[in-house]
Specification:
10 helices; monooxygenase; FAD/NAD-bd_sf; alpha+beta; FAD_monoxygenase; flavoprotein; binds flavin-adenine dinucleotide; FAD-binding domain-containing protein
């Protein structure tokens, strides 16, 4: 992107990566006639990575706006990985789960101590998903997606769980580990006045809030909105990216703040709990507080509109 070019004169954009943020950016930018874009993806083909993804209400709203939701079918949501290949989020057969007494058909988080949880949910009539989170010491062999691990080692990490969960885990035949890691927190998501970071590249949230896809779509939507604003008000690209940054960077900071608040309350809970059970109850209460769910209701259009208003008010004041 050239920094000082007026946005309405047509700009060229390179989108790096065809994950949720890159694809959303492509759809959003395709709607802007003054943008010529090219998407670069390192993988030669679209392929399944074998992990589930939860669509939060905010994700769904943006998929609707993108016109993508109408292309999603039930089997897209509830699709097991090929064969019976089990990952960190293994899929097991519903007919086997039905034999276990004490496993609810509702989606359940089975909390333990030390940030450990197991999430169980039926996907459709034939499959169940199990997601297991456990905090492990950092090793030198971290990989981003899907490293096969020993089933015995995996099961060792969840031995304190009650009998129905043990039976459920015994159905898993292979498991892969998906590591969460991220870079440092950035003050700004714009570099050199011409590069905008979107999606996971812009924030190290490491899976917090289970809404990385929503954040990615919000980034792309805001970026397109900022470019449209610049084009219609005859600004240059740097103005558009400054606006984008002024909307998204504070949003990320607010997410970090919420993440830190929850982490601090978990630490306090662990310190003060008289028993494992008390700690688990405390942790559930910490994450369930309504003030920690604000991001699912975030109105990304309103946030951009507010930032544009604030910018224009500042501009008027500087003229007066
Ligand atoms: C195990 C796991 C479970 C998750 N569960 C959920 C969930 O339930 N709900 C939710 O909303 N989010 C979830 N997330 C987070 C969500 O998957 C991410 O936030 C989201 O995928 C981010 O999209 P992205 O496009 O920014 O990045 P990515 O999805 O990582 O896509 C980046 C793309 O860029 C490509 N790429 C990388 N480098 C280059 C390069 N140099 N050149 C060209 N292409 C390149 C990659 O191949 C990839 O296709 C989960 C994440 C993990 C790891």
């Amino acid at each position: 992107m050239s920094t000082f070019k007026r946005v309405d004169e047509s700009i060229k954009v390179a989108i790096i990566g065809g994950g949720p943020s890159g694809l959303a950016a492509a759809i959003e930018l395709a709607r802007l006639l003054f943008v010529e874009w090219q998407l670069y993806e390192q993988k030669p083909t679209i392929s399944e990575i074998g992990t589930g993804i939860t669509l939060q209400r905010s994700t769904w709203r943006l998929l609707e706006q993108l016109g993508a939701s109408k292309h999603l079918r039930a089997e897209d949501f509830f699709r097991a990985p090929d064969g019976h290949d089990n990952q960190y989020r293994p899929v097991v057969k519903a007919s086997d789960v039905e034999q276990i007494n004490g496993i609810s058909k509702a989606t359940v988080f089975w909390y333990s101590t030390d940030s450990k949880w197991i999430y169980t949910t039926p996907l459709d009539d034939s499959d169940w998903e199990i997601t297991c989170r456990v905090r492990e010491a950092e090793g030198g062999d971290r990989s981003s997606w899907g490293r096969e691990v020993s089933l015995a080692d995996f099961l060792k990490g969840f031995q304190e769980y009650c009998e129905p969960v043990q039976q459920l885990l015994s159905l898993v035949s292979r498991v892969k580990r998906f590591d969460y890691f991220g870079g440092r927190r950035l003050q700004s998501v714009v570099k050199h006045g011409s590069v905008a970071l979107i999606g996971d590249a812009s924030h190290p949230l490491s899976g917090a809030f289970g809404a990385g896809a929503a954040f990615a779509l919000e980034d792309a939507h805001t970026l397109a909105g900022a470019l449209l604003w610049a084009a219609s008000s005859k600004r240059d690209l740097a103005d558009a990216l400054r606006l984008f940054d002024s909307v998204r960077s504070p949003y990320h900071s607010a997410l970090y703040q919420t993440m830190d608040t929850i982490a601090a309350s978990h630490e306090e809970t662990s310190r003060n709990a008289a028993s494992a059970e008390e700690e688990i109850v405390g942790r559930i209460e910490n994450v369930s507080k309504p003030e920690h769910n604000w991001m699912y209701y975030h109105d990304v259009d309103q946030a951009l509109e507010d930032a544009i208003l604030a910018l224009e008010e500042t501009a008027i004041k500087s003229v007066l």
